[in-house]
C-alpha cells in the first residue's frame, strides 16, 4: 500500500498539532495550584518611618544597646577595622550627620554628641535607581529592601547613597560574627548590605529590635497614618532629616532638642 | 593522501584522548544518590510530608525556592499555601533546613551526583548547632 503525498502531509500536520497540544497540557499540569499570602500577624503600614529622639540618648550604654542588639540578631560581622566595617546602625557627629546645618556656634552638647544613624529608607531612594540588577528595591510599605541573592557587588548603590548607609563585604563575614543568630542568614563575600528596618520582625508582628531596646529614643510607625506615634511626635516637635535638600526624602527624622534637654 | 601515516597516528591519539572518560569509567557504577530523611525533626513528625509531594520536590525544589524567595523578599508574602491546602511559613533556614538539617546526607547526595554546586549555605545555616560550633 502506498501513501499519496497529499495524505502524508495531512497526517504529518495533524500529528504535529497533537504534539503541540500535549506540550501545552504539560505546561498546565506544571503550573502550581498554590497561593502566597502575607501573615495576618504582621504589622502593616503604608510608609514606615522612624524618629530618633536624640534627647533620650544620654549615656554610652544608650547607644551601645541599640547597636548591639541589631548586630547580634542580624549577624553583622565585626572585622575590627574601619576599612572593612559593615554598618547597619552606627553613630557619627553632628558635623558629619547634618553637614548643611553645621555652624560653629551650636551648643557644645550638640556638636559633640554622637547621633544614631541607619539606612534612611528614602521615599525616593537613589540606591534603587542605580541598581543594575534590581537587587535593591522599594517595598509597598516604603522599606528599601535588598535581595542579596541578586546582588552582584557592583557597589553602585554605595556610590549613590548620600548617607553611607551601605557596606560591602570585602571578605567572608562568617568567621567575624561573634554571636551567631541561627534564625537569620549571614551575608557572603561580594554583596552589599544595610539596615532592613527589621522587615523579618515586622512580618511576625514585632517592632524593630533597636526600637524595642531604645527606651523611647527611637520611635517607629506609619507616616501615612495621622494617628501614629511618629506623626504625633513629628507634629509637636521640630525635626531634621539628613541632607533633605538632596531630594531623597529620608524616612528617618531627628529631634535634636535644645541644650536644656540634651 | 599525503602523510597518511602521521595523520592516522594523530587521529588514533586524538580518539584515545577524546574517549578516555568513557573507557576509564567503563564497568564502574557510580553509587546512586541516597538522600537520607532520618533527621530528628523528621522522625518526630506524624505525617512525614514535605510542603509538596516527593515527586514535585525532587524535580522542582529549585523553582519552588526561587518562587519562595521572590514572594518573601520582594512581595513580603511569607506564607505558602501548598497544593494540598496546608499553609507553611516561607523560610529556607527556619523551615526547609530545620527538617533537612543533614546537608551532607541529604542535599549533597544528589547535588554531588549531578555535579552542581548551589551556594545556598554560604549565607543560610544548614544546622544551627553546627553554625555556632564553626567559630
Describe the protein.
The complex is a heterodimer of chains A (262) and B (135). Chain A is 29% helix and 15% strand. Chain A has 262 residues and is α+β, with helices and mostly antiparallel strands. Chain A has a 4-stranded mixed beta sheet with strand order 9-2-11-10. A two-stranded antiparallel ribbon of chain A has the order 3-4. In chain A, a hairpin with a 5-residue loop joins strand 5 and strand 6. Chain B is mostly helical and 135 residues long. Chain B has one domain (35-133). In chain B, a hairpin with a 5-residue loop joins strand 1 and strand 2. Chain A binds chain B through residues 30, 32-39, 42, 137, 139-141, 145, 147-149, 174-175, 177, 180, 182-188, 199, 203, and chain B through 60, 64, 67, 69, 71, 73-83, 87, 89-90, 93-94, 119, 122-125, 128-129, 131-132, 134-135. Strand 1 (35-37) of chain A pairs antiparallel with strand 1 of chain B.
State the separation between the terminal residues of chain A, measured CA to CA: 103 Å
Average pLDDT metric of chain B: 88
Instruction: Give the count of structural domains of chain A.
Output: 1
Determine the structural class of chain A based on helices, strands and strand pairing: alpha+beta
Give the integer mean of the pLDDT values of chain A.
Answer: 91
Count of DSSP strands of chain B: 2
- Going across the major beta sheet of chain A, what is the strand order? 9-2-11-10
Biggest interface and residues each: A-B, 31 and 32 residues
Describe the main β-sheet of chain B briefly. 2 strands, antiparallel
Largest sheet entry of chain A = 4 strands, mixed
- Nearest-angstrom radius of gyration of chain B? 23 Å
CATH class of chain A: Alpha Beta
Question: Which fold name is given in CATH as the topology of chain A?
Answer: Alpha-Beta Plaits
Give the N-terminus to C-terminus distance of chain B in angstroms.
68 Å
Helix content of chain A: 25-40%
Order of helical and strand elements of chain B: HHHHEEHHH
Oligomer: heterodimer
Helix content of chain B: 40-55%
Q: How many structurally independent domains of chain B?
A: 1
Amino acid at each position: 500500500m502506498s501513501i499519496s503525498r497529499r495524505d502524508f502531509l495531512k497526517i504529518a500536520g495533524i500529528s504535529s498539532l497533537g504534539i503541540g497540544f500535549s506540550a501545552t497540557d504539560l505546561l498546565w499540569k506544571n503550573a502550581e495550584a498554590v497561593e502566597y499570602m502575607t501573615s495576618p500577624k504582621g504589622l502593616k503600614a503604608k510608609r514606615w518611618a522612624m524618629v530618633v529622639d536624640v534627647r533620650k540618648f544620654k549615656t554610652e550604654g544608650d547607644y551601645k544597646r541599640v547597636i548591639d542588639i541589631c548586630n547580634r540578631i542580624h549577624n553583622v560581622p565585626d572585622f575590627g577595622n574601619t576599612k572593612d566595617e559593615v554598618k547597619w546602625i552606627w553613630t557619627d557627629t553632628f558635623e558629619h550627620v547634618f553637614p548643611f546645618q553645621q555652624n560653629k556656634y551650636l551648643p557644645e552638647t550638640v556638636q559633640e554628641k554622637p547621633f544614631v544613624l541607619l539606612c534612611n529608607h528614602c521615599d525616593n531612594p537613589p540606591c534603587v535607581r542605580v541598581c543594575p540588577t534590581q537587587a535593591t528595591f522599594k517595598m509597598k510599605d516604603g522599606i528599601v529592601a535588598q535581595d542579596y541573592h541578586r546582588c552582584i557587588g557592583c557597589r553602585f548603590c554605595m556610590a549613590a547613597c548620600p548617607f553611607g548607609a551601605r557596606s560591602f563585604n570585602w571578605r567572608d563575614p562568617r568567621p567575624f560574627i561573634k554571636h551567631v543568630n541561627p534564625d537569620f542568614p549571614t551575608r557572603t563575600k561580594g554583596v552589599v548590605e544595610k539596615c532592613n528596618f527589621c522587615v523579618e520582625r515586622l512580618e511576625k508582628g514585632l517592632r524593630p529590635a533597636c526600637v524595642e531596646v531604645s527606651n523611647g529614643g527611637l520611635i517607629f510607625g506609619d507616616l501615612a497614618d495621622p494617628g501614629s506615634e511618629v506623626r504625633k511626635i513629628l507634629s509637636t516637635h521640630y525635626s531634621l532629616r539628613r541632607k533633605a535638600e538632596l531630594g531623597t526624602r529620608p524616612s528617618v527624622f531627628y529631634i535634636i532638642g535644645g541644650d536644656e534637654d540634651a | 593522501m599525503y602523510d597518511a601515516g602521521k595523520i592516522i597516528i594523530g587521529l588514533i591519539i586524538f580518539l584515545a584522548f577524546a574517549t578516555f572518560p568513557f573507557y576509564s569509567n567503563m564497568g564502574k557504577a557510580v553509587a546512586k544518590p541516597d538522600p537520607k530523611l532520618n533527621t530528628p525533626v523528621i522522625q518526630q513528625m506524624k505525617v512525614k510530608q514535605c510542603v509538596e509531594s516527593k515527586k514535585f520536590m525532587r524535580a522542582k525544589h529549585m523553582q519552588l525556592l526561587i518562587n519562595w524567595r521572590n514572594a518573601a523578599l520582594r512581595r513580603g508574602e511569607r506564607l505558602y499555601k501548598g497544593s494540598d491546602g496546608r499553609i507553611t511559613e516561607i523560610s529556607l533556614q527556619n523551615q526547609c533546613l530545620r527538617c533537612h538539617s543533614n546537608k551532607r546526607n541529604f542535599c549533597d547526595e544528589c547535588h554531588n551526583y549531578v555535579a552542581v554546586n548551589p551556594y545556598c549555605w554560604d549565607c543560610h545555616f544548614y544546622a544551627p548547632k553546627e553554625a555556632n560550633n564553626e567559630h
